[in-house]
């Protein structure tokens, strides 16, 4: 299965709670922290919600 790398590049300070919770659910806790996920519709939906805070790369 295709994989994607998600990196938190903008701060969560001052963001709505739902965006903070989405980043936490993805396991992104600090700036420049990255995680690798399988490219599934549920992960893509979470990324879409915080797309202005993260960078997504194909692996």
Q: Provide the number of structural domains.
A: 1
Terminal residue distance: 11 Å
Strand order of the largest sheet: 2-1-3
Q: What is the approximate shape? A: globular
Beta strands, count: 3
Count the DSSP helices. 2
Proportion of residues in helical segments? 25-40%
Mean pLDDT: 96
Encode the helix/strand succession as letters.
EHEHE
Low-pLDDT residue spans: none
CATH topology: Ribosomal Protein L30, Chain: A
Using the 3D structure, state the CATH architecture. 2-Layer Sandwich
Tell me what you see in this structure.
It is a single chain. The chain has 59 residues and is α+β, with helices and mostly antiparallel strands. The chain has a single domain (3-58), classed as Ribosomal protein L30/L7 (Ribosomal Protein L30, Chain: A, 2-Layer Sandwich), CATH 3.30.1390.20. It has helices at residues 17-25, 41-49; strands at 3-8, 34-38, 54-58. Strands 2-1-3 form a three-stranded antiparallel beta sheet, with no helix packed on it. The protein is globular. The N and C termini lie close together (11 Å).
């Amino acid at each position: 299965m295709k994989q994607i790398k998600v990196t938190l590049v903008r701060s969560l300070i001052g963001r709505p709670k739902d965006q903070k919770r989405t980043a936490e659910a993805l396991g992104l806790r600090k700036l420049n922290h990255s995680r690798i996920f399988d490219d599934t519709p549920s992960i893509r939906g979470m990324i879409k919600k915080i797309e202005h805070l993260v960078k997504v790369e194909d692996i």
